[in-house]
Design goal:
The structure is a single chain. It is elongated and about 75 Å long. With about 300 residues, it is an alpha/beta fold. The longest helix is centred in the first third of the chain and has 26 residues. Helix content is about 40%, strand content about 20%. The protein has a 5-stranded mixed beta sheet with strand order 4-3-5-12-6, sandwiched between helices. The chain has a 3-stranded antiparallel beta sheet with strand order 10-7-11.
């Protein structure tokens, strides 16, 4: 069998040059000498018969062929990290790291409970946390930037649609939660026993993230009206403050209820015409075999 012209080390070097911007910086990041990096790239160029770096001017930049190999270097790097994490986790979860990303309302409720359980059960396990809405969070899992994403969907906006394509990923259902209406304290609708979204057709609305805004527009349309969106913010704490100030009403998921109950001037009510929101944990198939990732998924499921 003919040995391939490109090896893992070559991909790592080109990925490092792409990330660091110079051969010298790439060499430092890889812990090897700058001449060794330059010689390796030149040998690779000779084997492939094409230039990988444009060395004109004071710096270097990747050619189209170099950029292609650098992209594969990112994929290989993610696979190597997964392999390393799996081996490290064989020590019985006494070490290891899980990179978790979750949407904001879950990081105030569901996620902290899971992190406490993980800390108590596996004190050597390190979990890092970032916030992102579902489209970005799923892209982070796919690219290897994170290991587990907590994401949500409304009916008609499934996680496997459009920019959220789930091909090659796996999901674990965590919960279904109702969507509630946040109203200013003293609002006439707060006393309506059988409240409907249609009762709020003439209100000013506060919209959230793009996916939440889509649910508002869809639900309102099904109830026969187009909501007047007066304000928009991804920060649900800001949404609650706007509602408390009497500037509008909003749809919020039940996960926000504990925070809303501590916000003076806001009441949360169920209303006919809204839909439940499904919350899932998403990861890559290979990472399911990593005990630290499996433990994180279990902790998230138990935290519901």
């Amino acid at each position: 069998m003919t040995e391939p012209a490109v090896d893992v080390n070559s991909l790592r070097i080109l990925r490092a040059i792409a990330d660091e911007g110079t051969i010298t910086a790439a060499a430092g990041a890889l812990g090897i000498g700058q001449p060794a990096v330059s010689q390796h790239v030149r040998r690779l160029e000779r084997r492939l018969g094409t230039a990988l770096l444009d060395r004109t001017g004071r710096g270097v930049r990747l050619t189209e062929a170099g950029e292609a190999l650098a992209r594969h270097g990112a994929t290989v790097g993610a696979a190597l990290r997964a392999a390393s994490a799996e081996v490290s986790a064989l020590t019985g979860l006494r070490a290891g790291r899980v990179r978790l990303v979750a949407f904001p309302s879950s990081t105030a409720t569901l996620v902290p409970r899971a992190l406490v359980a993980l800390r108590d059960a596996h004190p050597g396990l390190r979990v890092t946390l970032d916030e992102a809405e579902p489209p970005q969070a799923l892209a982070m899992v796919r690219s290897g930037v994170c290991d587990v994403a907590v994401a949500f969907e409304y009916p008609g906006t499934g996680l496997g649609r459009g920019e959220d394509d789930l091909a090659g990923l796996v999901t674990r259902h965590l919960l279904d939660e109702p969507t509630l209406v946040a109203l200013p304290e003293g609002h006439a609708a707060a006393a309506v026993e059988d409240l409907s979204l249609a009762d709020l057709a003439d209100e000013a609305w506060i919209a959230g993230c793009p996916r939440c805004r889509g649910h508002l527009l869809s639900a309102a349309g099904a109830c026969g009206f187009e909501p007047e969106i007066a304000y928009a913010t991804d920060d649900y704490v800001a949404v609650l403050a706007l509602v408390a100030a009497g500037l509008g009403v909003a749809l919020l998921p039940d996960l926000v209820r504990p925070v809303a109950e501590r916000q003076p001037g806001v009441v949360m009510r169920r209303a006919a015409g809204t839909s439940n929101r499904s919350v899932h944990a998403v990861t890559a198939p290979d990472l399911l075999r990593v005990p630290a990732v499996a433990a994180t998924l279990d902790a998230l499921a138990l935290a519901v």
